[in-house]
Design goal:
The chain has 10 helices and 33 strands. By secondary structure, the chain is of the alpha+beta class. Strands 1, 2, 4, 5, 9, 11, 13, 14 and 15 form a 9-stranded mixed β-sheet that branches. Strands 19, 20, 21, 22, 23, 24 and 25 form a 7-stranded mixed β-sheet that branches. Strands 6-32-7-8-3-33 form a 6-stranded mixed β-sheet. The radius of gyration is 24 Å and the shape is globular.
């Protein structure tokens, strides 16, 4: 697998090539499920067989499945890309003939964010084993990923940073990298061979977060993007925290993840003031509350929590996250209670978990640890409850992540968000439930004619601060791609009924729960398969450090990454 991409401003685009070879003596159908980053939008798919390169089209799911099966039965070759679950996609390649080699290339884009002077880019490469049943997340049997501890898939990646982001300091906590200058910025690539066993992470630090805008043609109309990076007021008096700490001690956390979790909790305890109240709980297949009710963070309570922390191990079996959160919601703490959740999030049952968390009315600040955490779940929990998410790879500085998280918790809560677009947009995407100092908020609007003027974001941040407003002028020049309209369409899908949902997805060629990407290769009569293909599901590599098997933690390896 080879990946090449570029980051221009906050827009990241990546092309991934997966090469297949059939060394056997019969035709095969190969199936592989892979992850994409949270909020990523697939832009295209192409198939190369020998000297032929074929593109396809997004079609309604039922039609895609029927046309795919029909092509296979006729002895032709077909490729179908489908959404398997939240952040997961499956590629089906049917009738790869004996001795044939083929390549599948897909492109995706993602809007990144400034987060307190830094931009974090993560390319997920592997799906770690998850607790529960894949069908809880709507996966079909052929989509459910399996893991092979003996599998080894080589991986290479090269990312070009352009513009202002190229001025920051670049490092990777996940891989050894080399950084070289280009005419338009810098390029970061692997310093030695990589594998599909951990997320590739780049952190660009030392940046000044700024608000940005872009305008792009959308058929006969236009789409505008406003990326606000507000500077929020500091509270003169910091309100005491009511904090409930919940640590994942299931078996999947063994090794790197539990070590990161313990360092994170230690840093949390150091950050608490005596007037703060807190609880400490751990969970696996059951939940254990060390404190039955919130305690003031005095010396005695902190010392007792530290003693419990020293004994934490990943020895509690399966990841019953929903039950644990439900139990923590009931611990009290008042209407302004916050939950700090530290986990790898490796669970299948997520829809009801996110729904119940939203109803509970308590903010969740998730710290996702490990070499391949389930980012989509952490982001959804944070966004739906008004909290925030930090992902922390084994060699990433978990203490800095906790400091950033605490600054969000202690800041005045932003409320009454309102946006004013120039002119009369035909539609605009909804506002988020929360905003934080120096962190980007992306908003879209659609127009019949070219929009001009300023976009204004108003909000209230604390009783003493009053109403505030951020204004940015829409870009004078248009960008020349179709990426922004497709991002906007993805956001608009969330509130549509099924018929409108499918129509919009087909119009913007989006792979969704109701639409698949399909490529058909009609073979010459003498080249068609004479029998149905043998199904071969491609297993995942074992995620590095998952479940205590291996490690990528520099605290253990003295700086080496293996």
């Amino acid at each position: 697998v080879a990946a090449q991409g570029h980051l221009d401003g906050l827009l990241f685009e990546l092309e991934v090539e997966r090469r297949y070879r059939n060394p056997g003596e019969s035709n095969i159908e190969t199936v592989y499920t892979f992850p994409l980053p949270f909020g990523a939008v697939l832009l295209g798919l192409e198939f190369q067989l020998g000297t032929k390169t074929l593109d396809g089209v997004v079609v309604e799911r039922k039609k895609g499945e029927a046309d795919y099966e029909d092509a296979i039965e006729k002895g032709d070759t077909a490729i179908m890309l489908e959404q398997a679950g939240d952040g997961l996609y499956t590629v089906n390649l049917g009738n790869l003939m004996p001795g044939e080699e083929a390549a599948i290339r897909y492109r995706y884009a993602q809007l990144l964010r400034f987060e307190k002077g830094r931009v974090r880019l993560a390319i997920p490469t592997v799906i770690a084993p998850r607790f529960g049943k894949p069908d809880d997340a709507g996966l079909e049997p052929h989509q459910a990923p399996t893991t092979d501890v003996l599998a080894t898939y080589p991986f290479s990646v090269s990312i070009e940073l352009r513009g202002e982001v190229a001025r920051g300091s670049v490092e990777s906590p996940s891989h050894p990298i080399k950084v070289s200058a280009t005419t338009t910025g810098v390029t970061a690539s692997l310093a030695r061979n990589g594998f599909l066993d951990r997320d590739f992470v780049l952190v660009i630090d030392g940046l000044a977060g700024t608000s940005l805008t872009a305008v792009e043609k959308d058929g006969v109309g236009y789409v505008a993007l406003a990326s606000f990076c507000p500077v929020l007021p500091r509270a003169e008096a910091v309100a005491p925290l009511s904090l409930k700490i919940l640590v994942d001690c299931s078996g999947s956390m063994a090794g790197d993840s539990i070590r990161s979790a313990k360092r994170a909790v230690q840093r949390i305890l150091e950050q608490l003031d005596p007037v703060d109240a807190f609880t400490l709980s751990r969970f696996g297949n059951q939940v254990q509350h060390y404190f039955a009710a919130p305690r003031l963070a005095d010396h005695k309570s902190i010392r007792e929590a530290a003693q419990h922390l020293a004994k934490l191990e990943a020895d509690m079996g399966g990841t019953e996250l929903e039950n644990a959160l439900t139990s923590v919601f009931k611990l009290g703490g008042g209407e302004n209670a916050d939950i700090l959740l530290i986990t790898d999030g490796e669970v299948w049952k997520t829809e009801s978990l996110v729904s119940e968390s939203r109803k509970a009315g308590q903010r969740i600040f998730a710290v996702a640890v490990g070499s391949a955490p389930a980012e989509s779940l952490h982001r959804a929990l944070a966004e739906q409850t008004g909290g925030a998410c930090e992902c922390v790879a084994p060699n990433e500085n978990v203490e800095e992540a906790i400091v950033r998280t605490f600054s969000r918790m202690r800041a005045p809560r932003v409320r009454d968000l309102a946006v004013t677009w120039p002119g009369k947009p035909r539609w605009h995407t909804p506002l988020p439930s929360a905003a934080f100092d120096g962190e980007t908020v992306h908003l879209f609007a659609g127009y019949d004619s070219r929009p001009e003027g300023e976009v204004r974001l108003a909000f209230h941040a604390g009783d003493e601060a009053g109403n505030r407003e951020v204004s940015i002028a829409l870009a004078a020049q248009e960008t020349n791609t179709d990426t922004l309209p497709r991002f906007a369409a993805t956001e608009r899908l969330k509130d549509l009924a099924e018929t409108e949902y499918i129509a919009l997805a087909l119009r913007y060629q989006l792979v969704t729960r109701n639409t698949n990407y399909l490529i058909l290769h009609i073979r010459a009569e003498g080249e068609k398969a004479k029998s149905l293909p043998e199904l071969q599901q491609v297993a995942q590599m074992h995620a590095a450090g998952w479940g205590g098997l291996g490690t990528v933690d520099s605290a253990v390896l003295s700086g080496a990454v293996d």
